[in-house]
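pinned: reference chain
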Amino acid sequence: MFTQLNPTIPVHVLGKGHGYAFGMIDYGQEHNLIWVTAIDDTGEIWCAPNPSVRMDKNWTMGRERNPAIAADKAAAKPNFALKNQPEPCACAEDLVAAENS
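pinned: its structure tokens
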């Protein structure tokens, strides 16, 4: 069963980062809930199992940041998918040089 969350819920997906859960999938008794989450930093949509999802801090509710979030941030590596874009091939350099001359 898919449930659309309205309003969305701010969460942290371990290994992915902060985002907003906008849906939840429940496959039944023998399965984890699946949180459909848009990740803030990358814009990716991930379906994260319940054990990988943590509620974010909420000052009005008196909820402090979860220690698992701090540990996850400390262990996080840069997102190479955003930084390591493919280099143009040598033929592309020749085309650009020809266009500019």
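why pinned: The chain has a mean pLDDT of 83. Helices lie at 67-75, 80-83, 90-100.
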